[in-house]
Request: fold
Amino acid sequence: MNVGVVNHDAEPAARSELITSLRRAHRSAVVLPDDWPLVDQFTLSRAASRRRVDRAVRRGDLVRVRRGAYALRSPTGTLGDTALALVGELTRQPHLVTGGAALNHARLTDQVYRRLIVLVAHPQRSWTWMGQTVQYVRVPSSDLWGGRPLPGDPARATVVARAERAILDAVAHPLWGVTFSEAARALSRCLDHDPAFVGGLAEATRRYSNTFLARRIGCLVEMLADPDAAIPLRALRGASKRFIPLDPSGDLRGGVSQPAWRVIANATREELLELP
Reply:
């Protein structure tokens, strides 16, 4: 896919008329058939709209993202919208971007994630844009909480998980691409920046309703900060007496028992934070 600058060799004003009109309507993408009524406003007929869209695609003014969905070029011919920015425009339903992309957006990690995890209540086709793949994960609609929309039209803005929700998802779902140590480093940065962060984290953990996750998070907070910092999480430990590994993917050999959380700490603070 060529997503660079397009040289309009003839009739630049006429060729960009539809794109200019859509930009004035604050649109950075067109999703069909949903947006036919919007395009019809500029062409006055559906047949003319189809011809105009076809010409715009052939010229490269509209660039296909997935079937029926196109990103708009700017007046200078560039495609500046990132995959994250396009999620809201293309998803058109309640959603939540979480995991590594959310941690990166919050500047809690320096890792570059090529896969964006987007939670939705109804199936969507995945798509790729500028080297990043947007993968939709279907969850109950009640799980779409803990996010904040990016600036823009609230009806089409991308909703990104806040730090506490993104960290919980990263620990609970390692297959979504964030390692346990990366999640721990993000949590450490939050605790260092804002001691009151634990309060919001505890409330999000309560809402998550996963006692194993609560024990891992509580143990992590205690390791990264101090025992008193983890007090708000103690009530969420559940009744199970079973000991679980701190890092589910790690080796239990040599792990240290943490009875207060019924967790085997199979990684040290220094190892998690990659300290010398």
